[in-house]
Amino acid sequence: MIIESLMLQMKLFLQDDMNIVIEHTEILDKDNDKVILKDYTSMIGVGGKLNLMVVISYQNSLLNELVSLFMDGEEVDPQEEEEIKESVAGEVVNTIMGLALPTFPNRGKGVTITPPITINDASNIAKHKNSKIITAIITTQFGELSVSAIGPDDIIK
Amino acid sequence: MLKVLIVDDSLIIRKKVSKLLENLGHEVIADAQNGQEAIDAYNAKQPDMVTMDITMPDMDGITAVKHIMKDNPEAKIIMVTSHGQEDMVIKSIQAGAVGYMLKPITEDKLAHAIGEIFIEYAIDEKDDELDLLDDSF
């Protein structure tokens, strides 16, 4: 299942690569009409033999910690802070996609990945009919993030 | 000391690679955020080595490698990529890239990659996550 693979890779990334403690994980057990977005959100599209969108949405506190870890403790220039946060959010979704792709149908062969985009100040993403949204929530010591897979019903189930 | 061009659309990756290269004693002479900027920067600066992202807006890294190699067949380009992009890595190598590094990038991976290409910077350590042309394809 795609969402389980995405959640697993996200957990491994946070725990093993970032040394962030995970307190709780949960896959929301119903088909949602929309993704409720947190402070910062990165999206990546998958095309070709598999069509879906992966959305990772972060609480600000967790993204700030990821920025600090990516910067190896180096101080962030206030003028670059916003761009760096967006860059880190995009890099994480890119990494998670890359790690999860070999576990997708057909081991992810024949698919293309778009460059990630990051947004803030948005409240939600609504689905179109015939599409499905499944969301996992990961709670860490620094805050929460959600991972959502959006796509055709037969792929996302 | 090598003069290096960093190509990546991600600011944080450009910063990270730049810092690691400087730690290793090399000089970052330019950076670029997409394939076209990479071609322009390569032609203007003639770096000793390029680190090249694959997935970028406007022009991807594979297309940029093809263009750079066409006019500069001696160019030394290392692709920087995520897991799960093996097909893209193969296309990059076919286009002329000399190797690749899997993210997350570390100083050890970078040092090893440079040592595989430039014998004067060769090191002994074996990094399982780095595979160069002769080993893998």
Summarize the SSE layout with pairings.
The complex is a heterodimer of chains A (157) and B (137).
Chain A: H1 2-17, E1 22-27, E2 34-36, E3 40-48, E4 52-58, H2 60-70, H3 81-100, E5 111-113, E6 117-120, E7 124-126, E8 131-140, E9 143-152, H4 153-156
Antiparallel strand pairs in A: 1-8, 2-7, 3-4, 3-5, 3-6, 4-9, 8-9
Helix pairs in contact in A: 1-3, 2-3
Chain B: E1 3-7, H1 11-23, E2 27-32, H2 35-45, E3 49-53, H3 61-71, E4 77-81, H4 86-95, E5 99-102, H5 107-117, E6 130-132, H6 133-136
Parallel strand pairs in B: 1-2, 1-3, 3-4, 4-5
Antiparallel strand pairs in B: 5-6
Helix pairs in contact in B: 2-3, 3-4
Q: Could you list some keywords that capture this structure?
A:
heterodimer, A: 157 residues, alpha+beta, Chemotaxis protein chec, seven-stranded antiparallel sheet, two-stranded antiparallel sheet, 4 helices, B: 137 residues, alpha/beta, Rossmann fold, six-stranded mixed sheet, 44% helix
- Largest sheet: number of strands, sense, barrel closure of chain A: 7 strands, antiparallel
Q: Please tell me the total number of domains of chain B.
A: 1
The biggest chain-chain interface is: A-B, 27 and 19 residues
Q: Specify the CATH architecture of chain A.
A: 3-Layer(aba) Sandwich
What structural category arises from helix and sheet content of chain B?
alpha/beta
Instruction: Classify the oligomer.
Output: heterodimer
Q: What spatial order of strands do you see in the largest sheet of chain B?
A: 2-1-3-4-5-6
Kindly state the mean pLDDT of chain A as a whole number? 88
Low-confidence stretches of chain A: none
Fraction of helical residues of chain A: 25-40%
Would you state the CATH class of chain A? Answer: Alpha Beta
Sheet/helix structural class of chain A? alpha+beta
Q: For the terminal residues of chain B, how far apart are their CA atoms?
A: 29 Å
What is the global morphology of chain A? Answer: globular
Structural shape of chain B: globular
CATH fold name of chain A, please? Answer: Chemotaxis protein chec
| Portion in beta strands of chain B | 15-25%
